[in-house]
Amino acid sequence: MTFGEYIREHREALKSQDRRFSVRQVAQRIGVEPAYLSKIERGDVAPPSEAKIRALAEELDEDPDVLLAMAGKVSSDLQEIIRKRPQLFADLIRQLKSAPDHAILRIARDVRDGDW
Amino acid sequence: MTFGEYIREHREALKSQDRRFSVRQVAQRIGVEPAYLSKIERGDVAPPSEAKIRALAEELDEDPDVLLAMAGKVSSDLQEIIRKRPQLFADLIRQLKSAPDHAILRIARDVRDGDW
DNA sequence: ATAAATGTGTAGTATATAGTACACATGACA
DNA sequence: TGTCATGTGTACTATATACTACACATTTAT
């Protein structure tokens, strides 16, 4: 599923419960022209900027990292973390490329709990 | 130190031992115009594309991830790994933001050795 | 029935990205 | 001393990114 299809689907779902989730009203709240949001949802144009994707995530109550990923982007705050210690993070991330989900989850939990 | 300064410094160091490391010759080997490389080194223009930075890293025997970081970029292969499992990686990387180097190094080693 | 709201087609814009092409003054060197 | 290579200034160019503005037909609400 593309970024646009995903947005349309989730916006429509909200719209069926609350008519403030029309293309026009959502567009206005995230600060773009209605025609632009319409084109984004139909895949007529590329996904918008990170800032607009974040606004959309907030509006639709979705995970911004997931939406950014669907848009082919990686959050700029993550990029900055990596850029500060490129060798360490590049090495770690490549190591984790084919690690199972539960392993990554567990490492994150261990780090959070200070178990390392 | 900027990307350009760093490149110039390291290219000049190689040049002092081997005159094939002139702006012109390096430019030709990495596939850009000499004037362009000159401008890059002096910060007259933004750093080049990821592909050219990789060619430069190879040519100067530098770590591509470090050069990319200096250029304000993150390797596209890392971005792809993150985009495939955005929640897991976003969470982990943010957890590791302020972890000490040795902790990150150790996690990478543990993963490599299968100790997890 | 009509006014308001809706979704979308067409056309255009500003800025960034990623360079090329050529000329020219300077310096090395044989 | 001529020529060959070097570094760089100026002027362009092509493509991508990230949108706006307006018109218009359709659908919905009162």
Automatic annotation (TrEMBL), chains A, B:
Residues 7-67 form the HTH cro/C1-type domain. One of its GO terms (molecular function) is DNA binding. It comes from the Bacteria. InterPro entries: Cro/C1-type_HTH, Lambda_DNA-bd_dom_sf. This is XRE family transcriptional regulator. It comes from endosymbiont of Escarpia spicata.
